[in-house]
């Protein structure tokens, strides 16, 4: 399900700080939707060509491996709830999003880049809390 302000072909961002925060929160929620995680066309649109992810295992994934991997195993079956979402501008057109997944406590960070067609995800890392 795409959020307001987006079509399947256009991930164009709206203007302003609050708008990019809302836009990126919506994109992060979409990336946590098991149906969209399994949609290779969606992943091709939202992941940057130079995308990298450091998984919870410490393994590094690129765009091609994510497109091949996620449709086969989205990682979880139910929806995930984003809490404590923050978006910080790191430079022109670069936004760092940091948040937690309520159901697991996982801390996630994503680096988004603004391009002519909208936002693309450049980097993502998820870290599970340690059992201290």
Q: Can you summarize this structure?
A:
With 132 residues, this protein is α+β, with helices and mostly antiparallel strands. The chain is built from 4 helices and 6 strands; from the N terminus they run αααββαββββ. The longest helix is centred in the first third of the chain and has 15 residues.
Task: State the order of secondary-structure elements, H for helix, E for strand.
Answer: HHHEEHEEEE
| CATH structural architecture | Roll
Count of helical regions: 4
Oligomer: single chain
Which stretches are low in confidence, meaning pLDDT under 50 for 5 or more residues running?
1-14
Content-based structural category: alpha+beta
Specify the biggest β-sheet.
Answer: 6 strands, mixed
Describe the SSE topology.
Layout: H1 17-31, H2 34-37, H3 40-46, E1 47-54, E2 60-62, H4 63-69, E3 82-91, E4 94-101, E5 107-115, E6 118-127
Parallel strand pairs: 1-6
Antiparallel strand pairs: 1-2, 3-4, 4-5, 5-6
């Amino acid at each position: 399900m795409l959020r307001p302000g987006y079509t399947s072909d256009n991930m164009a961002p709206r203007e302003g700080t609050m708008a990019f925060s809302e836009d990126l929160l919506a994109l992060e929620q979409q990336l946590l939707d098991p149906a969209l995680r399994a949609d290779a066309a969606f992943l091709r649109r939202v992941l940057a060509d130079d995308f990298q992810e450091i998984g919870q295992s410490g393994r590094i994934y690129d765009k091609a491996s994510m497109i091949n991997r996620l449709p086969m195993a989205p990682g979880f079956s139910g929806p995930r709830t984003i809490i404590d979402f923050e978006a910080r501008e790191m430079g022109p057109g670069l936004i760092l999003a940091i948040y937690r997944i309520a159901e697991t406590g996982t801390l996630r960070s994503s680096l988004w880049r603004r391009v002519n067609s909208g936002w693309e995800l450049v980097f993502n890392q998820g870290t599970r809390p340690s059992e201290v």
